[in-house]
Amino acid sequence: MIAIFKKELWSYFGNWSAWVIIAAFSLIMTLFLFFFENDSNIFDIGLASLQSYFVLVPWLLMFIIPALSMKTFAEEQQTGTLNWLFSQPLKVSELVFGKFLSVWVVGILCLIPSLIYLYTVYVLGVPEGNIDLGMTFGSYLGLIILIASFAGVGILASSLSQNQIMAYLLGVFMCFIMYFGIEQLASYKLLGSADFILQNIGFYQHFMGFTRGLIDFKDVAYFVFIIGLSLALSNHFINKKK
């Protein structure tokens, strides 16, 4: 598993793809938070808070993480190296988990430049340091778990696809449905009391708890279940290909 993890990390950083993704991610967030006129601009809203960042990031992640995960299995199958991996002394579960960890780590690294935003907001506070650190760190934890969930869904999409383009489109679609689609469907209140159950199937409500600084065991358990289910299904589909 460690060998696969190192191999995948090298494939991301060795050809500059990870650096480009991290740089693009940071540039887009900087423009929205400090330069573009919009409801998320920290100077426009006049509030020393990173709440805007935590609202915007999931939307960008649902495009970034599938871009990272699309190559995990779809590319291996497309180039024929998947059969070579099957011939190695590796369990399929180790293969899946190693690739998942690499996508998760690169996704987390996308958040590192935001520490500059945190410092900026901390200094801009009146008085200096007037920022809700509990909510901020809870939101960061929520993002780290959300990235893992998107990575799991992206790995599943890649294991189901024959090529990278299909893996990417399927990954974005699945992440969108899980994060926003289910929440929107529940908002129409078509199912009566069952709408609450429908809401809790999606990512949105569980992630929002973290952004309020509330670290609920139920939310953590939900995301762990989604990650475990995604990886188990990926393992099943890769085993079928084997």
Summarize the structure.
With 242 residues, the chain is mainly α.
What does this structure look like?
The protein is mostly helical. It has one domain. It has 13 helices and no strands. The radius of gyration is 19 Å and the shape is globular. The mean pLDDT is 89.
Helix content: over 70%
Helix tally? Answer: 13
Q: Quaternary state, please?
A: single chain
Helix-strand pattern: HHHHHHHHHHHHH
Distance between the termini: 18 Å
Low-confidence stretches: none
Task: Give me the Rg, rounded.
Answer: 19 Å
Q: Report strand %.
A: under 5%
Average pLDDT, to the nearest integer?
89
Largest sheet: none
Number of spatially distinct domains: 1
Shape descriptor: globular
In total, how many beta strands?
A: 0
The assigned structural class equals mainly alpha
Topology:
Elements: H1 2-14, H2 17-35, H3 42-45, H4 51-69, H5 74-79, H6 81-86, H7 92-109, H8 114-124, H9 133-160, H10 164-187, H11 194-199, H12 203-211, H13 217-241
Task: Write a concise keyword list for the protein shown above.
13 helices
